[in-house]
Design brief:
This protein is mainly α. It is built from seven helices and no strands. Helix 2 crosses helix 7 and helix 6 crosses helix 7. Bound molecules: heme C.
Length: 118
Amino acid sequence: MEIAMRMSRRHCAAVLAALWLFSLASAALAAAPDGKALYATKCAMCHGTDGTAAEMWSKKGAPNFNDAAWQKGKTDDTIAKSIVDGNPAKMMPSYKDKLTADEIHAIVKHLRSLAPSK
Ligand code: HEC
């Protein structure tokens, strides 16, 4: 009886520890910025939900993010730098003071997901 009690108490502690770890993990997930949502609200009006730039912006030089050659030609760092610096002369805004590094990272990840599937 005594042993059974001790065992179940230990079991209970293990379950609590697992729940605690799980809640930590889901809190971390919830805190990660949503690149897709950020892109939809801040970028899609010019760059298109699927990465096809709207005509008036492609005339200004906006590439299609769903183009394999574009995806291949850019590193994540180059893309992040374009987002930070922008190119105001061509109407690409600078997001230096508007997005955090984490948000930009999440958006770059989303841009990568727009690449055509091979
Ligand atoms: C007002 C329209 C507009 C908005 C909003 C906008 N962009 Fe742009 N973006 C452009 C244009 C136009 C260019 C081309 C500029 C150039 O030729 O240098 C561009 C260029 C870029 C480039 C560089 C492409 C390359 O080939 O080097 C990236 C990356 C980019 N935009 C990402 C984004 C992201 C991410 C957002 C949202 C956070 C965003 N843009 C919001 C219009 C816009």
